[in-house]
Amino acid sequence: MKNTTLNMIDDLVKRYPALAVCRSSIQEAVEAICASYSNGGKVIACGNGGSASDAEHIVGELMKGFILKRPIDDELYGKMKEVCPNEADYLRDNLQGALPAISLMNAVALNSAFANDQAPDLAMAQQVLGLGTKEDILIGISTSGNSTNVIYAVQMAKVKGIKTIGLLGGRECKLKELCDISICVPEMETYKIQELHLPVYHALCMAVENEFFLN
C-alpha cells in the first residue's frame, strides 16, 4: 500500500479520533477492495434506508473521479480513435477512469417483482446470486448489524466465494460474526452511527482511488 494511502487513513483518524478503534479494519478493507479490483472484480453495496443512500453514495465515488481526475489512458484513447475518431477527443477529455461498483438498491422493478412473487427479505440475495462473482467484494451497511435482507445478501456472497465487508455500529450483531471484515464504528444510536459511516466510506473510496490512479 502506498504511503500516501496510509496517510489518508491516518488523517481520517486524526479528524475523527473515535475511529481509532476501526483503523486496522479500515486498512484491511482498503486492501481487500484493491485486491478485488486487481482481480477484475467489482464492489457490490447494499443497505436499508439511510444505509441504502450510503450504498448509492459509495458507488458514485467509485465510478467517477472522487479526489483525483482519473484521466483516460493512452491505450483506451487509441481504441476510441479507432471506433469513433470524430468524438475521441471529446470522450477522452470528459470521461474518467472508473472503479466498477453497483448498488443493489436501485433495481426497483427487480426488487419489487421479487418481493411480490417470492420473498421480500431475499431480494438483495437474489441479486448477489445473479450478479456476483468470486472476484467481487460485497459491502453490507447496517446500523443495527442485524438487517435480515443484508444478512441474506452476505450469506449468499459467502456461498459464491465473495469476500464481505460489514459497515456496522458498536452493538454485538449477526453481521459482525458473518462478515470477513467488520468496520464497527463506536456508536449505538442510528444517526450517530451514520454520521461516522460517511467519513469511513469516503476514506475507503479515496484510498482505493489513490492506489489505482495516483501516478
Give the secondary structure arrangement, pairings included.
Elements: H1 3-15, H2 23-38, E1 43-46, H3 50-62, H4 74-83, H5 88-94, E2 101-103, H6 108-117, H7 123-131, E3 137-141, H8 148-159, E4 163-168, H9 174-178, E5 181-184, H10 190-213
Parallel strand pairs: 1-2, 1-3, 3-4, 4-5
GO biological process, one term: carbohydrate derivative metabolic process
Protein name: Phosphoheptose isomerase
Organism: Anaerovibrio lipolyticus
Notes on the structure:
The protein has 215 residues and is of the alpha/beta class. It has one domain: 3-Layer(aba) Sandwich (Rossmann fold), CATH 3.40.50.10490. Helix content is 55%, strand content 10%. The protein has ten helices and five strands. It has helices at residues 3-15, 23-38, 50-62, 74-83, 88-94, 108-117, 123-131, 148-159, 174-178, 190-213, and strands at 43-46, 101-103, 137-141, 163-168, 181-184. The chain has a five-stranded parallel beta sheet with strand order 2-1-3-4-5, with helices on both faces. Helix 9 links the parallel strand 4 (163-168) and strand 5. Helix 2 packs across helix 10. Residues 33-214 form the SIS domain. Keywords: Isomerase. Pfam families: SIS_2. GO terms for molecular function: carbohydrate derivative binding; isomerase activity. This is Phosphoheptose isomerase.
